[in-house]
Amino acid sequence: MSEKSNNSQKMAVMSFVLPFFIGGTYYVFVAIEHIQKQPHQLIDFVIAVPFAYITLGTCSGIVCFCFWQFADGFLKAVNSFLIPKEKGANPSLLVGYQTQKGTETL
Question: In angstroms, what CA-CA distances link 72 with 21, 29, 30, 49, 101?
Fold first, then answer.
């Protein structure tokens, strides 16, 4: 596997894992604070922690992963359109002023 492909895969995994833990941890604090305001039992805390990661952690991870895939695909599409793959080939978008027989045309 090439280094560029390997880095892209690592970034894709991290785009899910980091928001998963951040969103899940935030929801744990919200859930525990809510539970402490109500009459509770110890089992409420035990259930709240995994449920927080399963719900909001997973949702935030999926949203960030989808956003990362969209942005990565968009950047690859823009780069493949703007930057020619063959040396010496000019993409039609970047061709601007050309001189023909001493006169400038658009």
Answer: 22, 32, 32, 32, 43
Phi and psi at residue 36, to the nearest 5°: -65, -25
- Give the Cα separation of 60 and 17 in Å (integer): 10
Strand ranges in the chain using DSSP code E only, listed in sequence order? 98-100, 103-105
pLDDT tens-digit readout, 27-86: 999 999 998 888 878 888 889 889 999 999 999 999 999 999 999 888 888 887 776 666
Q: CA 72: distance to chain centroid?
A: 8
Q: In angstroms, rounded to a whole number, what is the distance separating the alpha carbons of residues 23 and 19?
A: 6
What are the respective helix, strand and coil percentages of the chain, to the nearest 5?
70, 5, 25
Place of tokens 């941890």: 25
